[in-house]
Amino acid sequence: MNTWHTYLLFFASMMLIIFGGTFLIRYTRTGDVLVDQLLGVFVGIVLLIGSIFWKIKAK
């Protein structure tokens, strides 16, 4: 059964993959740190941690 925390976990992991991958590629190629991609990574991390705690608490 899929619940909201499962979808939130999936969304957070997708954010980390997309924004984190783009951030790492850009940083290794040019050495630039783009704030929008860095914020996307931090939001993804916060959502991931929150959804994991929510899933543990829901059990």
Summed up:
86% of the residues lie in helices and 0% in strands.
Topology:
Blueprint: H1 4-30, H2 35-58
Strand content: under 5%
Low-confidence stretches: none
> Which series of helices and strands comes N to C?
HH
The overall pLDDT, averaged over residues, is 88
**Class by alpha and beta content:** mainly alpha
How would the global form be characterised? elongated
**Roughly what percent helix?**
over 70%
**From the alpha-carbon coordinates, what is the Rg to the nearest angstrom?**
14 Å
Count of individual helical segments: 2
* Euclidean distance between termini CA atoms: 13 Å
Looking at the chains present, what oligomeric state does this protein adopt? Answer: single chain
Number of strands: 0
What is the makeup of the main sheet? none
Polypeptide structure, described:
By secondary structure, this protein is mainly α. 86% of the residues lie in helices and 0% in strands. It is built from 2 helices and no strands. Helix 1 runs antiparallel to helix 2. The longest helix is centred in the first third of the chain and has 27 residues.
Please tag this protein with its features:
single chain, 59 residues, mainly alpha, 2 helices, 86% helix, elongated
